[in-house]
Fold:
Amino acid sequence: MPIFELLALLLGAAAVWFWLDSIRVRELAVQAALQACVDDGVQLLDETVVIRSLSLARNEDGKVCIVRKYGFEFSDTGENRRSGWLVLRGHSLETMHLQTSLYLIQ
Structure:
């Protein structure tokens, strides 16, 4: 197998892995946002989160992982929209912010 084909196959496999991992992490983000909204007595609007940024960083074990910041909207009255965001380092929730409160996960 020529090196170009092997390289293309590896890049394709990496792209599929990243896509599947992103789907799993997004579901974690939706569940975390939903739970925070339930805890604060507000409603998560559209029941979804949107990726805002993506970067690489080290976790507590010193391994390189992907850090994703997601944004979402919620309402405390049913007639307004407030914004919130959360940060996932790898598959772990690191920080969450709802316009009225700040959650720090350690």
